[in-house]
């Protein structure tokens, strides 16, 4: 399977499978889905969607989920990277905290607030 992206288009095996309103910053494939990081700078700085800039689609490009708004979210604390952590997706925020989600369902397994436990804040 060959995954790539060009501006706002997600491409799988040389075929465009999905388009987004924002530019794609990164995309990682998992067993049953693709997690997509969208450009945070294309949202208004006070828009709550700025902190929800991660979505997932299936291999046909059908929308599966968007990262939910979390109680600890601040509008300017958007996600800046996505990596694999075992079978899950680790979404790192601008402030250094992270969220761990099930890439197929979007279920939040670890919140940014929980990711700070035992870590220095400075």
Specify Rg, calculated over alpha carbons: 14 Å
Strand order of the largest sheet: 4-5-6-7
Mean pLDDT across all amino acids? 89
Tally the helices: what do you get? 1
Beta strand %:
35-45%
Helices and strands, in order, run as EEEEEEEEEEEH
Tally of individual domains: 1
Largest sheet: 4 strands, antiparallel
Q: Per CATH, which architecture?
A: Beta Barrel
What is the CATH fold-level name? Thrombin, subunit H
Residues in helix, %: under 10%
Cα shape: globular
In terms of structural class, how would the helical and strand content be classed? mainly beta
* E-strand count: 11
The CATH class is: Mainly Beta
First CA to last CA: what distance? 41 Å
Poorly predicted sequence stretches spanning 5 or more consecutive residues: none
Tell me what the structure shows.
The protein is mainly beta and 122 residues long. It has a single domain (3-115), classed as Thrombin, subunit H (Beta Barrel), CATH 2.40.10.480. The protein is built from one helix and eleven strands, in the order E-E-E-E-E-E-E-E-E-E-E-H. The strands form three sheets. Strands 4-5-6-7 form a four-stranded antiparallel beta sheet, with no helix packed on it. Strand 6 and strand 7 (63-66) form a beta hairpin. The mean pLDDT is 89.
Descriptors for this entry?
single chain; 122 residues; mainly beta; Thrombin, subunit H; four-stranded antiparallel sheet; 1 helix; 11 strands; globular
């Amino acid at each position: 399977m060959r995954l790539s992206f060009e501006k706002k288009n997600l491409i799988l095996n040389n075929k465009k499978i999905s388009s987004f309103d924002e530019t794609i910053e990164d995309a990682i494939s998992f067993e049953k889905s693709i997690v997509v990081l969208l450009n945070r700078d294309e949202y208004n700085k006070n828009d709550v969607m700025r902190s929800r800039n991660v979505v997932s689609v299936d291999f046909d490009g059908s929308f599966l989920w968007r990262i939910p708004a979390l109680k600890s979210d601040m509008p300017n604390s958007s996600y800046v990277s996505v990596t694999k952590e075992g079978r899950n997706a680790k979404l790192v925020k601008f402030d250094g905290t992270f969220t761990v989600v099930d890439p197929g369902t979007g279920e939040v397994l670890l919140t940014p607030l929980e990711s700070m436990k035992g870590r220095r804040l400075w």
